[in-house]
Amino acid sequence: MAADEQADRLYAAIMQVDALQPDARFDQVEQLVAGDAPHDRAAYARELAGFLSVADYPCRHPAYAYYFAQRYGSSVSYGACSDSVPFFLFDRKQGGRLVHIRPDHVSSIHVMFSSGGDSLASRFGHVSLRLIVCPDGPVTAERCERNLFEHVVLGYMARVDGLQINPLKGMVGGYAARLQGMSFMEAYRANTLLDDRNLYSVPLKMDHAQVEQIVRELSEVHWRYRGDYRFFTNNCATLLQDALAQMVAGYASDDELARGYLRPDTFFAALRHSPLVDARWLDKPAEAEARGYYFPSNRPYYRQARELIAAASQDSPAATLDQYASTPAKLRLQNILSDVRLKEAFAKDAHVLDAQILLEEYTLMQLQSMLTQRTIELLSRHDVVAGLSDLAADLGPAPEREFFTQCYLEPLAALHRQLPRADGIPDDAFLDAHYRQAVDCNDIGERLKVSGLVAARMQQIEPGFIALRDIGRQIDLTLANISMLKGLM
Fold first, then answer.
1. What pTM does this model have?
2. Range(s) of the domain holding residue 431
3. CB-count exposure of residue 310 (10 Å: 0-12, 13-18, 19+)
4. Residue 211 belongs to some domain of the structure
5. Nearest CA among 172, 181, 178 for reference residue 160
6. Is 473 among the domain residues?
7. Statement to judge: residues 175 and 193 lie in one domain
8. What are the backbone dihedrals phi and psi of residue 436, each rounded to the nearest 5 degrees, phi first?
9. For a designed S-S bond to 201, which of 110, 234, 276, 332 qualifies (C-beta 3.0 to 4.6 A apart)?
10. Residues 122 and 154 in one domain
């Protein structure tokens, strides 16, 4: 008998047995995994039938499989499953990328808090989960914790369907909530380098089997969950608390955490004093930073560099850090070269020259962020997207068309589309249909050929593209400034 037919018969049989009813725990699992999906007996019967008859059910639905195993006294085995589970990591520059994480290569799971920002959506901070992914080779805690470039951050976020957040919509509902992924380095860059925010990271106390189970469940939630995001009542903090209450043993019985917190900052303040996490190092910032539990904002270092340059310079009054970064690159260089006192300071103290280079690197980072943001704003317009889509038909050789489609159009679409929703952890066929990449987007030769054509088409369809070229020119001149200053070392 085919698996689907067997599942259908079991479903019909389960619906006839009054004793087989969903309980409160099933509703909680359903809410965790599917979000706003209806909670009824049919859903329960459908999942139970799959658990009893489909061989790879635990591979696709680990949260449900674990629930049924706990309720009916059986066990869950992932021996027949793939060694890894997929996540799609958002990337503001390239749209995003698909990664596969081996649950047995995740040494621990942290709760990560970024301190408050200036916007309405970030005023009280943001909380997320950080998967400590180990490198290949011998597994040690130190090697895993230092493997920052492979760490993955997962947090509940609003799917904003525009360039500007609508405050009213954010408060009363209308934005879709999802468990979004990004690399740790993307989160680090966005918070501590581009914004003036600190990152705090504390490990949850779990054994390795619990970590592996939760990583699988997070993949299921990542691909299936859709909810309603509200800034003050159904946000990153409340949704994460609900998830932790279902996934982490002992969370629901912690009286302090069971109170529930609407704000990310108050939730993290309560969590760091809970026995469920190891937060002892946060009281010692220097040691916490050395261990990878605390990542302070880099803004103070840039301000110190600006103050050092101001003290060594003949200019008065000194420009602020933001004023310096907004000054055209040529004028910045002219000011440096014409300042006799500053050049003397360069010769006497290498730290002054280092500070000047740091300011140029800060400016470069801000310019690159500005270029990325304005490019996204421009390319979000339907007429611009349509114009670029037409370009694909005009490209001659097939390799150029394929390169343009996979390295330009598809990343652009990824910035604006919903993550495809799968019924559980997706299989290879689903992923291949949505995330194929048969070309090397880092091929310099192809990129140079195609980028020239894209630039020419952009100038035809959008005059605002010239402003992007101006920012690009400032980036080139800033790079030249840095090169010149390093030549003085």
1. 0.85
2. 382-461
3. middle
4. yes
5. 178
6. no
7. yes
8. -70, 145
9. 110
10. yes
Contacts for 23 with CB less than 8 Å, ≥ 6 apart: 71
Tell whether 351 and 396 lie within a shared domain.
no
Residues 256 and 345 in one domain: no
How far, in whole angstroms, is CA 33 from its chain's centroid?
19
* Same domain for 265 and 146: yes
Distance in angstroms (rounded) separating the CA atoms of residues 216 and 44 = 20
Q: Among residues 239, 297, 243, 281, which one has the least CA distance to residue 264?
A: 239
Non-local CB neighbours of 443 within 8 Å, separated by 6+ positions: 403
Helix (H, G, I), strand (E, B) or coil at 19: coil
For residue 449, is it within any domain? yes
Split into its structural domains, the chain has a count of: 4
User: Does one domain contain both 156 and 236?
Assistant: yes
Q: Give the pLDDT of the chain (489 residues) as one tens digit per residue.
A: 566 777 788 888 888 888 888 888 999 999 999 886 666 788 899 999 999 989 899 999 999 999 999 999 888 999 999 999 999 998 776 667 899 999 999 999 999 999 986 665 677 899 999 999 999 988 888 899 999 999 999 999 986 554 455 555 545 456 788 999 999 999 999 999 888 899 999 999 999 999 999 999 999 999 999 988 887 788 999 999 999 999 998 898 888 898 889 999 999 999 999 999 999 999 999 999 998 999 999 999 999 999 999 999 877 666 888 999 999 999 999 999 999 999 999 999 999 999 999 999 999 999 988 887 777 777 666 666 666 666 666 666 677 777 777 776 676 666 666 678 899 999 988 888 877 666 777 676 776 666 666 667 666 666 667 777 888 889 999 999 999 999 987
